Amino acid sequence: MKRLPVTGSNQLLDLLDPYIPDDFINERWNARPPRGPRWQFRPAQLWRTHLLPLLTPVHSLNLLTQLLPEQRAWRHFAQLRHRHRTPDVRILNAFRARVGVMGLRQINEAILQPLIQAAAFWQNATALIDATDLPAACSGFKKKTRVFTQPNAPRWADARSRPARVAGLSVTKSTASACGGASIHRRFCWCR
Considering the entire predicted model, what is its pTM? Predict the structure, then answer.
């Protein structure tokens, strides 16, 4: 099995470049804004620029917009031809608001569809769940404040009763899924 190049390297950006559906993105979100000047960047360029914080050591759009003029490989991946004509943070935020969460999911599905179809022919395919809709454990599992009692009194003497709460949630909300498969050879099947 071949290993992926190091994050942020030119080799990784060149490897991932053909998998991005530029035509799909440009056709779907190429609408002219209702007011103001026309967009000077294509939607695929802005989406590729959004990928750079994930694929490079830069982890914020503010820092990315400062370093983008200096990084030729990053500009080449984002298809930005001019060194000093790069999108700023305002343009990137407006694009993300215009595309929305559902638009980003459609782009991900366009990328995943050929991979899922190809996975049907893999010998040892593995299924993965899309966990974007699963709730995060952000407030339900924080540390609880303790009720302090007198040293001589039993711990339960001054404690207030509280209604029982659910400790976790085991419901899946509109989780996108896809399936594919190949024939299972009899030598791998343990059932009779």
Answer: 0.60
